[in-house]
């Protein structure tokens, strides 16, 4: 008799309601609190459950920080802000501590700073160091990644290679850089590119070329990444000006920006003029496309750079460490009028848009309060975020409320949300704490509502998401357990939108065998359930990965994944280690096996070479992916 992987979970799923993960409110609450009494590991914190890739800049930054941690005794304010979870306030407090106490003698000294507690210290520890000489970074940095997937898709006629190129020159005050991207089956090897010149000296910041604005809580303008539910990172970084090197094509600005800081006054000005992708039908502009655009087929190529966008804006703020208030305003117009088809949900129409907002931050020792209120000047929509974070010694609690109206049109917004920064209302509560016996717990509850119809749902959408995890370190071994439940009325069946429930349970064990060898074992089970139809699907995933040094300057990692789910609805997401700059979280569904080998080698001190081979054997189809990368830094 053949015993399939999913039979393990299916046997549990066939138990009466009120047991294990089968939907039942009372039992689910009991299970939630049970697992809660058992935190997020550094590798789990940035695991997004999205079908699109996590912005490569984010994961690449984390990888480089682990390899070359920030020295908190000598880091500048800007370098401290590269560390995940470190806000402008915490960076300023670290600098003040160094001025008064001269230097940190251990990581635990950070606990003397208001706003840094044990859970936060644990999260930032992989990315910081003390009294350790950092690797000398070359003034010139360059990286190329080439990948190909077999068998080739014969529906497209252009090259199947995917190519990414990045180059940067950095001197004391000036940074020059550029990127060029080509997705698989696109015609041009510079289908999307960026160029920039960034000057920083004293209190002046000037950039010319492609850039991003990270203002307030990202209701008006933002940059992809570093706002995740599972990590508890819900406060923006407030960079303001940032060179744009992401592969997300249409979120950048192209022009120039200036920032000037006085003692308590900060100001900035920015302009942009660039082309955007758009859908045009019979000469009528239907939709402006702000997303990662593919240009593989004739239909997709026709959408490329079809309209021009002009944008101008400014920001001014006043305050100190305790209280800061700033306001941002921008105006933009297109060279063609947007005239969407008539549908039962809101779509932007017109030729121009404008936004204005007020951002406030208040800090008092271990408590932070922040808010941003924004208004769309022409569409008459509004957006609002109000948040607070409290950090006593061993616990962090964050609460965030957001309310975005249906007509809040802000195409470059990256504020906290379940779906998008429009037509959404929700309350998010997060807690992480150090428990007795050195256990770390993390969990959140997010309740959300989309009051008006959307493209995917002709009715209002309501739902909630519950997450809890526990982590325990035993010398060289790390144990991790997490439970996640999501309920939402967006399952489409016939002419109805039905409520569905998805529940995931994950166990993982990571063991550091010695200084150069590491082993990780992971299992995850899922149940997808639609009460109205009586539909129930299950899935299982088992992963095993091994990492070791080949010799001093070379490492390899091999992994295998076995998975079996009833359909795409019962998919399971897993983060796979890849070449830095090409990392992603992907869904596994159906029945199959995935194997990969990744090799990293350093040559001539500055030169790094990467190679990765992956085989995804799914039912009767075998996909083979080959990637190579070269980096100078």
CATH topology of the domain at 69-129, anyone?
A: DNA polymerase, domain 1
Q: What is the CATH architecture annotation of the domain at 69-129?
A: Orthogonal Bundle
Strand content: over 45%
Largest sheet: 24 strands, antiparallel, barrel
According to CATH, what is the class of the domain at 69-129? Mainly Alpha
Q: Give helix % range.
A: under 10%
Short key terms for the protein model shown above:
single chain; 633 residues; mainly beta; DNA polymerase, domain 1; 24-stranded antiparallel β-barrel; 52% strand
Model description:
This protein is mainly beta and 633 residues long. It has a domain at 69-129: DNA polymerase, domain 1 (Orthogonal Bundle), CATH 1.10.150.320. It has seven helices and 30 strands. The chain has helices at 7-13, 25-36, 56-67, 77-80, 88-101, 118-124, 298-302, and strands at residues 70-71, 128-129, 140-150, 162-170, 174-182, 192-201, 204-214, 240-243, 253-261, 265-281, 284-289, 307-319, 323-338, 350-364, 367-376, 382-390, 395-404, 424-435, 439-450, 461-474, 477-493, 496-514, 517-530, 535-551, 554-565, 572-576, 584-588, 591-603, 607-618, 621-632. It has a 24-stranded antiparallel β-barrel. It has a two-stranded parallel ribbon with strand order 1-2. Strands 26-27 form a two-stranded antiparallel sheet. It is globular and about 65 Å long. The relative contact order is 0.11. Residues 1-55 have low confidence and may be disordered.
């Amino acid at each position: 008799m053949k015993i399939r992987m999913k039979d393990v979970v299916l046997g549990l799923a066939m138990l009466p309601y009120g047991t294990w993960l089968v939907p039942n409110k009372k039992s689910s609450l009991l299970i939630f609190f049970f697992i809660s009494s058992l935190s997020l590991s550094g590798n789990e914190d940035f695991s997004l459950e999205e079908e699109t890739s996590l912005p490569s800049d984010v994961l690449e930054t984390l990888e480089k920080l682990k390899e070359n941690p920030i020295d908190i005794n000598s880091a500048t304010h800007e370098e401290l802000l590269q560390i995940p979870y470190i806000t402008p306030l915490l960076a300023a407090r670290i600098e003040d501590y160094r001025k008064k106490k001269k230097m940190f003698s251990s990581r635990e000294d950070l606990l003397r700073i208001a706003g840094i507690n044990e859970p936060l210290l644990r999260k930032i520890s992989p990315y910081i160091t003390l009294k350790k000489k950092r690797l000398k970074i070359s003034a010139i940095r360059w990286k190329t990644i080439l990948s190909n997937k077999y068998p080739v898709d014969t529906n497209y006629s252009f090259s199947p290679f995917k190519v990414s190129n990045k180059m940067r020159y950095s001197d004391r005050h000036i940074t020059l850089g550029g990127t060029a991207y080509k997705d698989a089956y696109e015609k041009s090897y510079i289908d999307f590119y960026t160029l920039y010149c960034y000057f920083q000296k004293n209190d002046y910041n000037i950039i010319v070329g492609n850039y991003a604005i990270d203002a307030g809580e990202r209701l008006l303008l933002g940059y992809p990444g570093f706002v995740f539910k599972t990590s508890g990172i819900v406060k923006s970084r407030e960079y303001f000006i940032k060179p744009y090197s992401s592969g997300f094509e249409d979120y950048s600005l192209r022009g120039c920006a200036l920032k000037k800081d006085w003692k308590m006054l900060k100001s900035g000005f920015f302009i942009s003029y660039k082309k955007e992708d758009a859908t045009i039908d019979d000469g009528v502009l239907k939709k402006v496309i702000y997303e990662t655009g593919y240009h593989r087929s004739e239909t997709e190529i026709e959408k490329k750079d079809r309209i021009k966008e002009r944008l101008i804006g400014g920001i001014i703020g006043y305050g100190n460490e305790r209280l800061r208030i700033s306001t941002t305003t921008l105006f933009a117009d297109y060279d063609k009028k947007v005239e969407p088809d008539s549908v039962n949900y809101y779509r932007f129409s017109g030729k121009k848009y404008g936004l204005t907002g007020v951002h406030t931050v208040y800090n008092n020792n271990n408590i932070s309060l922040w808010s941003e209120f924004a208004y769309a000047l022409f569409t008459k929509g509004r957006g609002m975020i109000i948040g607070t974070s409290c950090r006593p010694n061993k616990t962090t609690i964050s609460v965030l409320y957001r309310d975005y109206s249906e007509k809040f049109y802000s195409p470059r917004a990256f504020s906290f949300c379940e779906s998008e920064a429009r037509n959404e209302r929700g309350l998010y509560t997060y807690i992480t704490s150090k428990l007795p016996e050195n256990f770390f717990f993390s969990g959140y509850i997010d309740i959300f509502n989309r009051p008006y119809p959307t493209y995917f749902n002709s009715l209002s959408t309501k739902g909630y998401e519950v997450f809890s995890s526990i982590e325990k370190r035993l010398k060289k071994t790390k144990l991790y357990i997490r439970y996640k439940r999501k309920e939402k009325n967006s399952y489409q069946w016939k002419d109805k939108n039905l409520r569905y429930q998805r529940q995931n349970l994950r166990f993982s064990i990571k063991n550091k065998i010695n200084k150069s060898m590491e082993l990780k074992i992971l299992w995850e089970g899922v149940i997808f359930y639609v009460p109205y139809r009586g539909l129930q699907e299950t899935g299982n995933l088992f992963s095993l990965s091994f990492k070791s040094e080949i010799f001093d300057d070379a490492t390899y990692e091999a992994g295998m994944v076995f998975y079996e789910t009833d359909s795409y609805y019962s998919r399971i997401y897993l983060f796979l280690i890849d070449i830095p700059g090409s990392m992603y979280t992907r869904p596994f569904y159906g029945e199959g096996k995935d194997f990969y080998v990744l090799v990293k080698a350093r040559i001539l001190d500055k030169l790094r070479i990467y190679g990765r081979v992956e085989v995804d054997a799914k039912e009767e189809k075998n996909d083979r992916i080959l990637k190579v990368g070269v980096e100078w830094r």
